[in-house]
């Protein structure tokens, strides 16, 4: 298999050097070139196209977000943002994702080289995920910034198949790479009376509140960052806070969430596996589990537990995924009852809410 060719765009020579050393020392990756700003990069792109671009946001002559917009409109290439602005300026990071970036890595304003070296695994994983991503031509927009082990985190297991089916429904959703835009499309299409949703999107802690606020301004349902005690009710979607797991609990016929600290599960916090497994134990057949675009296997085992508990389980299909990783792994385990394109998931959620639920287990 050919190496993943990477182009690095950053105005800092030390950052370009550190990233180059990381990429060159990783098997299966190589540096196609480096550039100090998007104009130099554009000149290089005329003669050769990389598999992945690593790009800063704050650069001379043209900022990274403007570059991504132009790139996605003219010659789409997967982009990983690596920027100090993403640490405190989460709206900027969300704007980059909406413009077409596949992944965002935050870096501190000080001690950048050491940080990059310590984040080697995350950087290489992001590059591999981006290389698998399907990026399409994006029309220009006027204003992008507008308007643990799981058992260590979860309550004791119960026999979820003995849970009485009720009229209350809960939808649990997990996504990673490509999920910010996929979730926007999904939630924008839901009516105000859609069932309550609990969502894990792999995202740093500084991003999730702004991400939820952004969706809330676009959707007919209410979208907000989850806090412990929030009830899952129709017309509300709760986003797990970054760096915290989200767990679904049942109290009578009601479902509430808890956010808590804990070890990484499936290499993530929040973890989709934790959310799905908690829903299997709390809701059983009253739950609908959806695993969406993302790299890795977080959520696959949890979705299987959901299915075995009698829940309906869906996977986003390969054609509509930015990265067909998480749904693929879930399908391999036999966790997915049915795969379908992103544009059908909303209708399936409403079908589920209306109690038209086919058998979850063949």
Provide structural commentary.
By secondary structure, the chain is α/β, with parallel strands linked by helices. Helices cover 36% and strands 20% of the residues. The protein is built from 14 helices and 14 strands. The strands form three sheets. Strands 8-9-7-6-12-13-14 form a seven-stranded parallel sheet, with helices on both faces. Strands 2-1-3-4-5 form a five-stranded parallel sheet, sandwiched between helices. α9 links the parallel β6 and β7. The chain is elongated and about 60 Å long.
Compute the number of helices: 14
CATH class bucket of the largest domain? Alpha Beta
Widest sheet: strand order?
8-9-7-6-12-13-14
CATH-scheme architecture of the largest domain:
3-Layer(aba) Sandwich
CATH superfamily of the largest domain: Methylesterase CheB, C-terminal domain
Active site: 176, 202, 298
Subcellular location: Cytoplasm
Family: Belongs to the CheB family.
Domain Response regulatory: 5-122
């Amino acid at each position: 298999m050919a190496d993943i060719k990477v182009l690095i765009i950053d105005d800092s020579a030390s950052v370009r050097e550190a990233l180059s050393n990381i990429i060159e020392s990783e098997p299966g990756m190589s540096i196609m070139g480096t550039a100090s700003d998007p104009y130099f990069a554009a000149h290089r792109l005329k003669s050769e196209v990389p598999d992945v671009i690593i790009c800063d946001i704050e650069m001379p002559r043209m900022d990274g977000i403007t570059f991504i917009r132009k790139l996605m409109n003219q010659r789409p290439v997967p982009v990983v943002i690596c920027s100090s602005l993403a640490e405190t300026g989460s709206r900027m990071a969300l704007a980059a994702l909406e413009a077409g970036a596949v992944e965002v890595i935050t870096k501190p304003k000080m001690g950048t080289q050491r940080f990059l070296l310590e984040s080697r695994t995350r950087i290489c994983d992001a590059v591999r995920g981006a290389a698998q991503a399907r990026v399409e031509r994006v029309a220009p927009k006027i204003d992008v910034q507008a308007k643990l082990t799981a058992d260590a985190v979860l309550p004791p297991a119960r026999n979820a198949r003995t849970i009485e089916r009720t009229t209350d429904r809960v939808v649990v959703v997990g996504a990673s790479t490509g999920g910010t835009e996929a979730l926007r499309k999904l939630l924008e299409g839901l009516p105000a009376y859609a069932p309550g949703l609990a969502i894990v999107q792999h995202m740093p802690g500084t991003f999730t509140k702004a991400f939820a606020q952004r969706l809330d301004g676009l959707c007919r349902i209410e979208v907000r960052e989850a806090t412990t005690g929030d009830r899952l009710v129709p017309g509300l979607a709760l986003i797990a806070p970054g760096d915290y797991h989200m767990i679904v609990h049942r109290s009578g016929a009601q479902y509430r969430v808890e956010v808590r600290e804990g070890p990484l599960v499936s290499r993530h916090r929040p973890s989709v596996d934790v959310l799905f497994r908690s829903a299997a134990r709390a809701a059983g057949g009253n739950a609908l589990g959806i695993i969406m675009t993302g790299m890795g296997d977080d959520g696959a085992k949890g979705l299987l537990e959901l299915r075995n508990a009698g829940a309906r389980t869906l996977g986003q299909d390969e054609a509509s995924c930015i990265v067909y990783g998480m749904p693929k792994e879930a399908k391999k385990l036999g966790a997915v009852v049915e795969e379908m394109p992103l544009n059908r998931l909303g209708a399936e959620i409403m079908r589920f809410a209306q109690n038209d639920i086919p058998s979850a287990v063949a």
